[in-house]
Amino acid sequence: xxxxxxxxxxxxxxxxxxxxxxxxxxxxxxxxxxxxxxxxxxxxxxxxxxxxxxxxxxxxxxxxxxxxxxxxxxxxxxxxxxxxxxxxxxxxxxxxxxxxxxxxxxxxxxxxxxxxxxxxxxxxxxxxxxxxxxxxxxxxxxxxxxxxxxxxxxxxxxxxxxxxxxxxxxxxxxxxxxxxxxxxxxxxxxxxxxxxxxxxxxxxxxxxxxxxxxxxxxxxxxxxxxxxxxxxxxxxxxxxxxxxxxxxxxxxxxxxxxxxxxxxxxxxxxxxxxxxxxxxxxxxxxxxxxxxxxxxxxxxxxxxxxxxxxxxxxxxxxxxxxxxxxxxxxxxxx
Length: 334
Fold this sequence. Notes:
Order of helices and strands: HHHHHHHHHHHHH
CATH architecture of the largest domain: Up-down Bundle
Shape: globular
Helix content: over 70%
CATH class of the largest domain: Mainly Alpha
Radius of gyration: 19 Å
Number of domains: 2
Number of helices: 13
CATH superfamily of the largest domain: MFS general substrate transporter like domains
Structural class: mainly alpha
């Protein structure tokens, strides 16, 4: 297998663990540890806060170490921390574990993304990152689907066993991914620096952050909105249509970025995203809701991979790791 394929498989596995646990930790905290709704939500969301710290740390470490040297210990920490979930007996330990586990995820994901971007020729980086990011879309469907099935039967033991197994699979995969050659985005050819943000990646990252804020509202309130307007069945199918739209169009949007550049393709996708939000706001029927999902997938779903490609396109190879960290920090904030 090529490095991009192996990195994409690694990306799929770690995101599967992320989505499996993000969909089950709040119910576990509430039902098993008997916590309040607020503490349950904090336990679930603390993972994302940990991711931010992990990404910032990886951006700084990239000045001294190649991504492979970050990827393997990051995966070891990720797997070890996954194995601690069955031992948690109180909510505060769970919150601390979620933070540390999120930080390890941020390290792994950033190192893996650096390798993926570093092996791609600049002329095909948009298309390549589009294929690399397929794993996240697939995991976003598989993780919650499996997790919610376990929650329905209160089978949290198997949630953690699956997460542990997938985490150690990710650890094993990390050994199979070849490192980047020196000067191919590993950061070793530049002077040591404590810089945490790559300035040239900030403009496109801010665009992604604002877009993410809009999309997070859909994720948080779509089910409630569907119940209020009596379109619950359509809102349950929303993300299936969204995922199908993204899967079918990401390679095409990546090729468009490589051929015509971000100044044409990103505004087009953002316009489609805005159209989808408008359609959803005024949807009065199930087909209208699903049509909005199609447009949001065409827009926001493609903006994510296009933004990453554009963030790393603006920097020399030795700064790819820092640019990748910058991009995802802003995305996580959104």
